[in-house]
């Protein structure tokens, strides 16, 4: 066959190809803040006022390059908020906002990094005498337990299996990979201190022993005490329940201790109810997971300050996930801690 005839046939085949450029579905984006309050809350589990507050705080850090169809700060915030609060597949979040799944992933990582950098503005222990006295007053109103400045405990946040060296150290006593997160909360369920750097196999007592907050208590930075469970050693500034109370005074102490310390369990329940990614687990890399946990703590505190109601659209009970804590082995109290606790009981629980 003539070579020219072959070339002509190739050209005809090319003409038959559909060279029409497909419309870019990712370029059609609606401002979510144009939704009604009800629709916004349904999509993002928070009020529009709450979303606008976050955008206002992060806007300067989320300013976008006007080239190449960028994401506005509003879209970036709601993508992260929906992904963390609903814990849905990122492809669904991407389709809803006219972007791709990798863009949603990068956006969530970016928002988490910014919020974690700003965490000290929102997560902090009471420092002034008036702040500490007010915190102590609120705790005492729960069960008449005096001088409490915080309730401490750890919770395991599930992460995907770590295959790198040392990955087995993330496996906790229940057999799944996790980060063991230490939290201190106040009587309003706000998070005042958070530590996210420890792997799931690490015991609660070690996390506290090596944290900055312990050093501050030992230096006398606070006028009150912490309440913890029997997974911590009893010290002059961290009281635990009595293992075998034998007197009415000791029983009153234990009852009051349990009711007051329960605030941290309620804090975990509320925190995970708001952000289902904490309840069901993180799928990203470990460092992003740690920053996301801190970011969700910041947003949790903001939600309490703004009196955000917990979204009621999803009714599965938080108790089925949080009412079976990982059992901690009993840690014997220190001599000084035991003496201090005995004096405390004799003074306040007669």
Distinctive features:
350 residues, hydrolase activity, 14 helices, 5 strands, globular, five-stranded mixed β-sheet, 49% helix
Rg measurement, Å = 26 Å
Helix count from the secondary structure assignment: 14
Shape: globular
Could you list the spans in which at least 5 consecutive residues all have pLDDT below 50? 11-26, 313-327
Number of strands: 5
Oligomer: single chain
Query: What is the element string, with H for helices and E for strands?
Result: HHHHHHHEEEHHEEHHHHH
| Major sheet strand order | 3-2-1-4-5
> What is the typical, i.e. mean, pLDDT?
86
The SS-based structural class is alpha/beta
Cα end-to-end separation = 110 Å
Biggest sheet details: 5 strands, mixed
Helix content: 40-55%
Please report which band the strand proportion falls in: under 5%, 5-15%, 15-25%, 25-35%, 35-45% or over 45%. Answer: 5-15%
Mind explaining what this structure looks like?
With 350 residues, this protein is an alpha/beta fold. Helix content is 49%, strand content 9%. It is built from 14 helices and 5 strands. The chain has helices at 3-16, 37-44, 48-58, 73-86, 90-97, 101-117, 129-143, 204-209, 212-218, 248-274, 276-280, 286-305, 319-322, 335-348; strands at 148-158, 178-185, 191-199, 225-227, 238-239. The chain has a 5-stranded mixed β-sheet with strand order 3-2-1-4-5. A hairpin with a 5-residue loop joins strand 2 and strand 3 (191-199). Helix 3 packs across helix 4, helix 4 runs antiparallel to helix 5 (90-97) and helix 4 packs across helix 6 (101-117). The radius of gyration is 26 Å and the shape is globular.
């Amino acid at each position: 066959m003539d070579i020219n005839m072959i070339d002509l046939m190739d050209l005809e085949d090319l003409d038959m190809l559909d060279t029409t450029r497909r419309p870019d579905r990712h370029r059609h984006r609606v401002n979510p803040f144009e939704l009604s309050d009800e629709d916004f809350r349904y999509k993002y589990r928070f009020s529009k006022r709450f979303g606008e507050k976050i955008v206002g705080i992060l806007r300067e850090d989320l300013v976008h390059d006007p080239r190449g169809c960028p994401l506005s700060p509003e879209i970036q915030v709601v993508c992260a908020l929906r992904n963390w609060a609903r814990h849905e597949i990122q492809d669904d979040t991407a389709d809803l906002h006219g972007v791709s799944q990798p863009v949603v992933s990068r956006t969530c990582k970016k928002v988490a990094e910014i919020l974690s950098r700003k965490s000290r503005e929102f997560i902090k222990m009471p420092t002034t005498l008036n702040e500490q006295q007010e915190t102590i007053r609120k705790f005492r109103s729960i069960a008449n337990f005096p001088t409490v400045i915080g309730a401490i405990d750890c919770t395991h946040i599930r992460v995907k299996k770590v295959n790198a060296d040392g990955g087995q150290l993330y496996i906790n006593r229940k057999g799944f990979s996790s980060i063991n997160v230490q939290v201190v909360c106040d009587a309003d369920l706000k998070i005042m201190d958070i530590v996210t750097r420890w792997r799931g196999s690490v015991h609660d007592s070690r996390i506290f022993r090596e944290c900055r907050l312990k050093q501050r208590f030992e230096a006398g930075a606070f006028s009150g005490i912490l309440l913890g469970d029997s997974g911590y050693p009893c010290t002059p500034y961290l009281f635990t329940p009595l293992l075998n109370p034998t007197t009415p005074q000791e029983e009153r102490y234990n009852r009051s201790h349990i009711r007051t310390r329960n605030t941290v369990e309620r804090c975990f329940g509320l925190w995970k109810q708001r952000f289902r990614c904490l309840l069901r687990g993180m799928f990203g890399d470990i460092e992003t997971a740690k920053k996301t946990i801190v970011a969700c703590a910041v947003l949790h505190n903001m939600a309490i300050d703004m009196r955000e109601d917990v979204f009621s659209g999803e009714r599965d009970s938080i108790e089925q996930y949080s009412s079976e804590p990982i059992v901690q082995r009993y840690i014997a109290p220190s001599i000084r801690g035991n003496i201090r606790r005995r004096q405390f009981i004799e003074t306040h629980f007669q």
